[in-house]
Amino acid sequence: MGKIIAGKVSDIPPGKMIKISLDGKDIMVANIDGNFCAMDDSCTHSGASLSEGSLEGCVVTCGWHKAEFDCKTGKLVKFPAKINDLGTYNVTVESDDVFLEM
């Protein structure tokens, strides 16, 4: 697929997340102190949208059942049960554009 534009740097201020949809797949893009990362948006526990949860540092917390994932690696950080990690995507910034490498 190549590089896909996710949005403008100004659309995703530090400490914020957005959800984008590409070919039926929802992806969360986060700005962590000026560094952008992207991972699957659906929590592997019950399918909640992670971009509707909360972000603290590089950890996103699912708003439904509080599963915590590392935005940079997609790895599960904390949850009472073992659930799957999430897929991640390379992010590049060119000028004011944020791109995902698919």
Describe this structure in words.
This protein has 102 residues and is mainly β. It has one domain: Rieske [2Fe-2S] iron-sulphur domain (Rieske Iron-sulfur Protein, 3-layer Sandwich), CATH 2.102.10. It is built from no helices and ten strands. It has strands spanning 3-8, 17-22, 25-32, 35-40, 54-56, 59-61, 68-70, 76-78, 88-94, 97-101. It has a six-stranded antiparallel β-sheet, with no helix packed on it. Strands 5-6-7-8 form a four-stranded antiparallel β-sheet, with no helix packed on it. Strand 6 (59-61) and strand 7 (68-70) form a beta hairpin. 24% of the residues are buried.
Task: Chart the SSEs and their pairings.
Elements: E1 3-8, E2 17-22, E3 25-32, E4 35-40, E5 54-56, E6 59-61, E7 68-70, E8 76-78, E9 88-94, E10 97-101
Antiparallel strand pairs: 1-10, 2-3, 3-4, 4-9, 5-6, 6-7, 7-8, 9-10
Key terms:
single chain; 4-stranded antiparallel beta sheet; 102 residues; 6-stranded antiparallel beta sheet; 0% helix; mainly beta; Rieske Iron-sulfur Protein
The unreliable regions are: none
Which CATH-level-2 architecture?
A: 3-layer Sandwich
Fold-level CATH name: Rieske Iron-sulfur Protein
Number of strands: 10
Please bin the fraction of helical residues: under 10%
- How far apart the termini lie comes to 6 Å
Mean pLDDT, rounded to whole units?
A: 96
Instruction: Kindly report the name of the CATH homologous superfamily.
Output: Rieske [2Fe-2S] iron-sulphur domain
Helix-strand sequence: EEEEEEEEEE
